[in-house]
Amino acid sequence: MKGPVPIQDAVASDTGPSNTIKLLHLLFLSTSWGMQVWVTFVAGFVMSRHLPRHTFGSIQRELFPYYFHISSTCAFLNLTLFAMSHPSERLSKENMTQVASPFLTRAGQSPNPFLCSSGCLADHGDPRTVKRNPQAPKLQ
């Protein structure tokens, strides 16, 4: 019995993607989903219940850029792997939908680090927040 040849194993065949491509796709997908579940349902709820509001905001302000960038990178790499293993001339309508889904996810996530990390999670002493809304420290 002959084992898999590394170079041939990474190239797409006529029947479908190689095992290496499938493994990488699963790795990036599980990384993205696992991180989203952890940040949304575990870390967010625990920190919001046990930390003061301003401390929670400060931590989120530091964590969210990493969260957004890792999530965006995983979506981009999944799209790249899918495109590498499915040549465009062989794509059906269902496959085109699969290509469009991660592309739209990536496009939708692109502005998040800029919108949410600087303005939404800014603490009361941030000069940019006070400049935009002078009443912010009084409201908080």
UniProtKB/TrEMBL annotation:
Which residue numbers delimit the TMEM205-like domain? 27-100
Where is this gene product found?
Membrane
Looking up Pfam families in the UniProt record yields: DUF4149
Q: Which UniProt keywords apply?
A: Membrane, Transmembrane, Transmembrane helix
Q: Which GO terms describe its cellular component?
A: membrane
- Keyword match Acyltransferase: no
List the InterPro entries hit by this protein, alphabetically. Answer: TMEM205, TMEM205-like
TM regions (residue ranges): 23-46, 66-84
Q: What protein name is recorded for this chain? A: Transmembrane protein 205
* Species the sequence originates in: Lonchura striata
